[in-house]
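User: Structure please.
Assistant: Input sequence and predicted structure:
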Amino acid sequence: MLLSVLAAFNVQAADSTSTACLDEYAKLQIAYFNSSGRYTVVSSEAGGLSPYLLLHHNKDNKSYSVWEYLNGENRGYALRDGSGFDFNQVRSVVDELNWHPTLIWDRLLDKNTELKDYVCVFTGRARVAGHKVSLLRLAPQDGLRYGYLVAKDDDTSLPVEISVLEPQGGVVSKLLSLDYQAVANLQFPLKEALFDEVEAATHHSNEAPWLELLLPRVFTLIDSGVMTFGKDRVSYQEYSDGLSSFRVYRAPKTSVLFPALNNGTITIYRKQNALHEYAVVGDIPLRLAEFVLSKLK
């Protein structure tokens, strides 16, 4: 009897702790949505440090972000409520939104993001880049996806640092806000029509997932299509859990020279069966990519 009472108490305590953590996470999302100004964010990965200028504001209950890479060409990407496009101002090019190591910043901080099978744990308080912060850990229950450790400023509730954690617990990358300057009437540099054009061209899948794939239940099919690479027409399907996404390409069988490649949080994993070659590409761990193609013999 005593053991059952203690077990019930522990469950209630865990639920209460998780609720408190989620409340803090919600404050973070709202504070970021309401922020209007300039962030200087540094992305650190195994390959080194990359500085970015982030312009963020909200208008008509929509969240807008522009990330500009501060080294090399004047390029980056723009988001409106999580959807957007890549741009290169030198070449005057607007292209399909690609995977970026900084995308998780806006994905996690979007007030409409719903965590699917993540546990929120308050891990304490610390001092990061001169800020007193609360540390919120978001851990996936399936053990296949990235986890996240978020440092939230205790005074402003704005983000200070986001660490991306591999399933084994190691740190894959970090995004650190070195500076934030509030600008009440921020002049957003991109026209609304650009977002409208991209949104109108966005294709939503009405296919069924390929049966040869093994998918975690939190991922849903969001897009599909056919692309041309040289003489080959390659089919693809794209999946997302609301935070991360990946594409599976199915192409004519070739020799697989590099079964797995990794660039920070971005993974490419290739595998063959008797008829086709498959490639999983996205901001997911290698463990998840291998799981998706594990039915292939």
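Confidence is low (pLDDT under 50) at residues 5-13.
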